[in-house]
Amino acid sequence: MAVRMDGNWETQKMSMWQMGLHLVKRLQRAGYVAYFAGGCVRDRLLNQESHDIDIATTATPEEVQRLFPPATGLHGKVFGVVRVPSGDYSFEVATFRRDVGTSDGRHPDCVVFARPEEDAYRRDFTINALFYDPVAEQLIDYVGGRFDLAEKKIRAVGDPHRRFAEDKLRLLRAIRFAANLGFTIEPETWQALRAQATTIHLVSVERIREELDRIWAGPAPAIGLDLLDRSGLLVQLLPELSALHGVEQPKEFHPEGDVFVHTRLLLGQLCNAPLPLAWAALLHDIGKPITQRRDSSGRIRFFEHEVIGARMAHVILTRLRQPNHLIDAVVPMVANHMAFKDAKQMRPATLKRLLARDTFLLELELHRIDCLACHGDLSIYEFLRAKLEELPPADISPPRLLTGHDFLALGVPPGPRIGSLLEAVREAQLNGQVQTREEALSLASRLISSEPTPPSPGFR
Ligand code: ATP
Ligand code: MG
Predict the structure, then answer these.
(1) How far is the CA of 24 from the centre of ligand 1 (A)?
(2) Atom of ligand 1 at shortest distance to CA of 170?
(3) What's the CA-to-centroid distance between 316 and ligand 2, angstroms?
(4) Please, which residues have CB less than 5 A from ligand 2, an ion?
(5) Taking a C-beta distance cutoff of 8 angstroms, is the pair 430, 352 a contact?
């Protein structure tokens, strides 16, 4: 089916689009059918930016390579896809094809070249199965994708049960598109998705992680959480999060409800958030179910839930094979999130150490949305923002006044005591009790002669 598009597409400056148009023109002039395909067509119709343009054509990979000599077959000529560099961009040019067999529930056993409509039928959702001829300016829609786009619907192409059985990744893609585009999942597609949720483990952990990251760092992570939860995928992928349902909290601090409701409200504050913040928001109270106790007065407590929670966050993120830099940001954010409640009572040194943390700004934002998701009191948040403005960076984290060599020169034998002494001097410096090297050396001498060595100050 071909539909003429109205003209506003050309009014925008689209150099990637124009480059792609140029490639399509050359293919068409050589006698082949060639269209823009899939996600880029969907994105243009939604007036959203695409990060890439895929081209589908009747030309075989060899013919594409002959037409575009710098083309490389790197993307696997066997699968009928050739990467064609053009200007600053690189386009994937794929021969129209259909998939044959899907014995592993994820990949086709093989692909064979086919007609354009068969290529549309092998795509996952109708909104992703559109073609656009940029030369004739025509939309080619074999599956009713333009109606589903207009109605904001995610609908599997063909029989949803079969389509999910062929490739389990589509279960997560459906939810990612629904959450990120603000679409609903059409009832039969939703029913099939729920029926196959337990089979998601056929997808590699890396691809699962990628889809989850795109949901959490997308524009509507709370909607993503709801869909994952209601579909049955959450309990498969992040059972620790499902376990937050029904975990009661003290009503005076948490009028909003149980820990799941609270976590969801945090996510509801996020829109295209940095990934570490999104994961920290999801996992900040993950230790609550395990640590929940009632004290002698019957009050619910979650003693050290942040410590257990940080360990659980480490296990979860490692299980998802998250990169170390993400784990190293999220785990301390979970471990530290309760420290904020004491901010107004902190000694200057403790407060400065809080402000100097690498992840402080993300943690402050986590604290803000944590408060908004329960009592709504932002006074600590405002206090810390003011402190950040008021204290120059050189005051928050001034250069150290002494080094280990100074203590060796003062006759302290090498060993852990030097570390404790250095910390004691640092504490005094951050508290404003010593300001010069001379004052620091004099404090050092007093500390050395007084026994026992003062313990190294903890963070809290
Ligand atoms: P985005 O790039 O935002 O993730 P997209 O729809 O472009 O969205 P790609 O992974 O780039 O996704 O895939 C390009 C096109 O290939 C899709 O629009 C869809 O037509 C098809 N496609 C991708 N993955 C699948 C899949 N698992 N099953 C069926 N078709 C798929
Ligand atoms: Mg894409």
Answers:
(1) 20
(2) 27
(3) 28
(4) 39
(5) yes
**Does 123 contact ligand 1 (Cβ within 6 A)?**
yes
* In the chain, domain spans: 1-151, 273-385, 404-450
Q: What pLDDT sits at residue 455?
A: 53
Residue 78 is predicted with a pLDDT of 53
Verify whether ligand 1 is closer than 6 Å to residue 167 (CB atom): yes
Residue 422: pLDDT over 90:
yes
Residue 97, pLDDT above cutoff 50: yes
Residue 54 CA, closest ligand 1 atom number: 14
5-46 per-position pLDDT tens digit:
444 444 444 489 999 999 999 999 999 999 999 999 999 999
Distance from Cα 12 to the centre of ligand 1, integer Å: 24
For range 286-314, the mean pLDDT: 95
The residues near 177 (Cβ < 8 Å, ≥ 6 apart) are: 125, 127, 128, 154, 183
Instruction: State how far the Cα of 222 lies from the Cα of 282, in Å rounded to an integer.
Output: 10
- Alpha carbon distance 13, 442 (integer Å): 68
Please give the class, per CATH, of domain 1-151: alpha beta
**Average pLDDT across the chain, whole number:** 92
pLDDT tens profile 234-275: 999 999 999 999 999 988 889 999 999 999 999 999 999 999
Mutation probe of ligand 1 site: the residue of 36, 98, 130, 173 with most atoms within 8 A of C-beta: 173
Backbone angles phi, psi at 294, to 5 degrees: -105, 135
Ligand index nearest the alpha carbon of residue 167: 1
Of all protein residues, the one whose alpha carbon is nearest to atom 4 of ligand 1 is 39
Bridge partner list, 81: 94
Q: For the whole model, what pTM was predicted?
A: 0.92
State yes or no: pLDDT of 66 exceeds 70.
Answer: yes
pLDDT on residue 439: 96
State the Rg of the chain over Cα.
29
What count of other Cβ atoms lies within 10 Å of the Cβ of residue 117?
15
| Integer angstrom CA distances of residue 253 from 333, 376, 451 | 21, 10, 44
Only one residue has tokens 């499902």, namely 242
43 CA distance to ligand 2 middle (Å): 9
